[in-house]
Amino acid sequence: MLPPKDPAELAEWKKQYPDVYDVIETISLQQADGRAKQLEEKFQFLQEQQSQIAKEKAEVQLLKRHPDFAEIRATDQFHEWAQVQDPTIQGWLYDNTDNADLAARAIDLYKMDSGITSNKSKPKSSDVKKEAAKAVTSTKKGNQISVTEKKIWSVEEISKLKPGQFEKHEKDIMLARREGRIKA
After folding, report:
1. Domain boundaries, the chain
2. Which 3 state secondary structure label does DSSP give 153?
3. Where do runs of H (alpha helix) occur along 66-96?
4. Could you report the per-residue pLDDT of 98-120, keeping only the tens digit for each?
């Protein structure tokens, strides 16, 4: 008995040997199911590995931006703060496994609310002088100086700041928080 070589011969062979054809088809289906199951297991394993790698990469990025995050995460104060935040911010912290930027923004907000200052480089004295000059304006009379109104920040405005911008305004934001100049 020679196996068929093309679809027409296969149809003829199936008519001639229906019982044999059914047995061969059953065996083929079982083998195909076994291979499909193996491929599905390998695919699932690779997806889990890829997810784990993305999570670890995000954690490394987060620790570069906030080296103290491990200590912060271990405190009850941090988790209590997170519980009273908007669900979006909670998601940045608890449901987010691969976006370090969102987690870092939430930590920035926590530090700002808690009055924790970062140990990043201090601003240059020329930057401090420029900021001081912005806060003071001279009047037309020449020798009288008036202080401009202090900025009122919004939480939305702060959350939209890029990390570099946040660092630039961090002192003013912290002062505004202490003075109650941050609106919801």
Report:
1. 6-119, 120-184
2. strand
3. 69-73, 76-83, 87-94
4. 888 999 999 999 999 988 876 55
Q: Which two tokens stand for residue 78?
A: 């941090």
Residue (of 93, 95, 121, 96) closest to 109 by Cα position: 93
CA distance linking residue 96 with residue 63, whole number of Å: 15
* CB distance 117 to 174 below 8 Å: yes
Transcribe 31-57 into DSSP letters: HHHHHHHHHHHHHHHHHHHHHHHHHHH
Contacts for 107 with CB less than 8 Å, ≥ 6 apart: 62, 65, 66, 69, 72
The pTM of the whole model exceeds 0.90: no
Residue 72 CB contacts under 8 Å (≥ 6 apart), including other chains: 66, 78, 107, 110, 111, 116
* Residue 173 CB contacts under 8 Å (≥ 6 apart), including other chains: 112, 153, 158, 166, 182
- Token pair listed for 51: 């997810």
Q: Which amino acid is at 9?
A: E
Report helix, strand or coil for 150: coil
